[in-house]
Every structure is written in C-alpha cells, then in structure tokens.
Amino acid sequence: MPIRDFKAGEEVSGFFAVRKKELKEYDSRFFLKLELGDASGRLDAVMWEDAAITNNQIEVGSVVKVKGTVTIYRDDLQINVRNIRAAKPEEFSLDEILPRSKFSKEELEKRFVEEVGRIKNLHLKKLLELFMTDRKIFDAYLVAPAGKLWHHNYIGGLAEHSLQMAEIARKVAPFYSLVDVELLVTGALLHDCGKVWQYQAVGFFDYTTEGRLVGHINSGDHYVASLTEKIENFPTELAVRLRHLILSHQGTAEQGSPIVPQTPEGFVLYSIDELDSKMGALARIWEKEKKAGWSEYINLIGRYIYWGENRIQT
C-alpha cells in the first residue's frame, strides 16, 4: 500500500526509502526518528525498541522493509515502527520507491528528437544533435528529476519540464517580434541540463557534491559552452546569447541566477520557467490532496492555494 493511502489505525508492511534518521533521547530512553518515503509521498516514523542498534544498521538513502502501525501525532500521521530491516535488491522495484513521469524515457526522447527536427538554425541544430549523441549525458537528462521536492521531482521530470517549456516557447514567441524563437526553444531544452550533475537517486532524490558546491546553472553553462567549442565556426555572439539564457533563467540572484535576464529571449525564458515550474508544483500538491476548497499551507511559496469548491477530483 502506498504512503498516500495510509489511514490512522492501519497495520502496514512495505518497502520505503530512508530519507532522514535521527537518534534522540526522551525520558532516559533512546528512540529513532525517521522520515520514510515511496513513489507516492513521505511520512514521519518513530521506533522505540532497539533504537540505538537499528540506527547503526540502516543508512539514509537505503531502502528498508518496515512493519508498524499508522498513528496520529500532533494532528499528522506517522508510523510507529515495530520492525525494520535493510531490503534486498530483489525484494522491491524502484518504481515503487521513486516517482516517475507519465511519459516513458522513449516517449521523452522521441519528443526531443521532434523538437530538434524543427530547428532550422544550423548551428543550434548541430549543438542539439551533439547533445543527443553524448549518450551518457543525454540518457541521464531523460531520467533526471527537475527538482528535489518542489516541481517535476520525479524520474523523467527534467526532460518533461524542458520539453513543455519548449512547446510553450513556440506558442508564445510569435507574439513578440524581438524574440528569436529558435534560440528561445534551444534555451528551453537546455536551460536545466546541469541538473544531470546536480541530483542523484539514493532511494530518493538528493544533491550531489557538485550540485551543492557548483550548482546546476554553472554546470549547465560549462557543458553547453564546451559543446559550442566542438562545432566549427559556431558564432561567438550566438554562443554568448545561449549561455546567457542558461545563466539568467532563474531571474534574480535571490532565486539562484548569477545574472539577471538582459535579452528578449532571457525575459521570456524566465517567465516560461516560472510558469511551468509553479504549475508543475501545484499539480503535485493537488495530486497529494485532491480536495476542493483550500490547500494546506505551502511553506515554499508562503500561501494557501484555493482550488475552488467544484473542482473535479480526477
């Protein structure tokens, strides 16, 4: 049974990723505080018996088998764990542990190839084709998440988000004569490519060392610059304008961009990214709650969301 379907009072048994663990003391007794997750969500858990021993036997990022009871603590569900052990690889499927896009890797690749096929600028087309032939990186791009917790945080989320942005870009660009649509689409496809190096799957999505110390914007800029250098006579100004899209796509220093948008394409790409990332996040929250009226308070954006009283719960 997935976490999202848990109800208070139920006995549960299943495989979950250990997202967090902390050995704590209360009233002269040790207990183990955990956060467990699967493809449907995450939930706090607590274990009292043999807490210190168990703490040494399981690792953050590992998959474990858990037996326990779902209870309510401070108005939230949690699992009171009776038994927990490391899971064997043959006992579980990663599809049960990590969420994934509704599109398969093959479908995402097909859509990417189609987008590249529509590019007429020979330099941008060659760059995207070079990206696709770098199979180690391109394969990682097709399965990487676009975020850890906020938006498109599932296998295939990066490609899904980038392709959606490219599609929006093609629809929006004709309204603005200053915008180079093919540069904008290329920027949409590659703006987050550095997330290939930013995230790793360890039972859940977490930052790599490079992701923390360098960041996906810098990694993506470095990679795209290296691709342009491999293409004979790639125009210097075009390379700089494309790199600018990667470096400025999050809009401000407070949001993580080392520079602000300073080209027509930069302004549009930032706006498209804001739109698709926020709507992706709202879709995730709706899927979790699926109840009309107001959402729970959302800390990351500091507000509630009103779904309406008659929203169809699909």
How does this model look, in words?
This protein has 314 residues and is α+β, with helices and mostly antiparallel strands. The chain has two domains: 3-95, Nucleic acid-binding proteins (OB fold (Dihydrolipoamide Acetyltransferase, E2P)); 99-287, Orthogonal Bundle (Hypothetical protein af1432), CATH 1.10.3210. Helix content is 42%, strand content 21%. The chain has twelve helices and nine strands. The strands form three sheets. A five-stranded mixed β-barrel has the order 1-2-3-5-4. Strand 1 (11-26) and strand 2 (29-38) form a beta hairpin. Helix 6 (157-172) packs antiparallel against helix 7, helix 7 crosses helix 11 (236-248) and helix 7 (181-190) crosses helix 12 (264-289).
> Which quaternary structure do these chains form?
single chain
Number of domains: 2
How does the overall form come out from the CA principal axes? elongated
Contiguous uncertain segments of 5+ residues: none
DSSP summary: helix tally: 12
The arrangement of helices and strands along the chain is: EEEHEEHHHHHHHEEHHHHEE
CA-CA gap between termini: 20 Å
As for the CATH topology of the largest domain, it is Hypothetical protein af1432
Helix content: 40-55%
Mean pLDDT: 91
Q: Please give the radius of gyration in angstroms.
A: 22 Å
Could you tell me the strand content as a percent range?
15-25%
Structural class: alpha+beta
- Side by side, the strands of the main sheet go 1-2-3-5-4
CATH architecture of the largest domain: Orthogonal Bundle
Q: At the first level of CATH, what is the class of the largest domain? A: Mainly Alpha
Count the strands? Answer: 9
Largest sheet: 5 strands, mixed, barrel
